[in-house]
Amino acid sequence: MIWLAAYIGSILAINYAFSLFPHLDLVWSCWVGLVFVLRDMVQVRFGHWALAAMLGGTVLSYLLADPFVATASVAAFAVSELIDWAVFTVTKRPLRDRLWLSASLSVPVDTALFFGMLDIWEPGVWAASLASKLLGVSAVWLLMRARDGRTPVVA
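The line above is the sequence of PreQ0 transporter; the predicted structure tokens follow.
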């Protein structure tokens, strides 16, 4: 239940954080990267019922987003979460690898849909968003890998 609460709570918090402190957008983008990991952990715990949590997250994103970005936010969230779910479901790799692989495919789609629908084409904005989201996912992957005893986090 903790993963579900963290997933839904993060969606709520991120929407408010972007609204209240937009100048910290790179911080919130890293957190968005972790939302993909939290969704995967919901799927580990609840199986395909994770789709219900994704639907709830999509509705929350729509209700909390500024009207200008609501459609782009919901479209990006829904499509990227479905990609994340499908890749996570199909791959049979270890958990940490499925987390990173599913996010590495869904995060670029999320970024492209969101900024494309808002007609934002600045390469720096796209690169910063992609990098910060993938940084959050990669940090979790490195921690899990270190925990498994295969590679130390610090050299």
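Note on the example: The mean pLDDT is 82. Residues 123-147 form the longest helix (25 residues).
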